[in-house]
Amino acid sequence: MAKVTGIGGVFLRARNPVRLAGWYREHLGVPMSDHGAVTFHWSAEETTTFALFAHDTEYFGEPGQRAMLNFRVDDLDALLTRLRARNVEVLPQTEDSEYGKFGWVVDPEGNRVELWEPAPGM
């Protein structure tokens, strides 16, 4: 059965991503890039990205949503099909990229959640 296999990322809105990335670097030792992202490599197949987005990003959906979770999944298409059958709000767009396949659902509180099936080797 298609399912979540880990946390692929945690994304935050930031009024000033560059300044906030500097704060995380300076005060918590998080090795943020200048554009506000870091990927932690837990094992050869498991990574988690922490990234900052501009406060006005539309990537998260509603402007009031301050954070978005990205869950790593083992079969995006099967999971989205099952969620639709269970009347979960599944957003119509999906994305295929060099990083893998992405889809989005909305939880009962109105939070957009990103689902990511990594490309082979990621």
UniProtKB/TrEMBL annotation:
SUPFAM superfamilies assigned: Glyoxalase/Bleomycin resistance protein/Dihydroxybiphenyl dioxygenase
Domain (VOC): residue spans on this chain: 6-118
A Pfam family it matches: Glyoxalase
GO terms of molecular function: dioxygenase activity
Keywords (A to Z) from UniProt: Dioxygenase, Oxidoreductase
Superkingdom, taxonomy of origin: Bacteria
InterPro entries, per database record: Anthracycline_SecMetBiosynth, Glyas_Bleomycin-R_OHBP_Dase, Glyas_Fos-R_dOase_dom, VOC_core
PANTHER family per UniProt: GLYOXALASE, GLYOXALASE-RELATED
Protein name: Glyoxalase/bleomycin resistance protein/dioxygenase superfamily protein
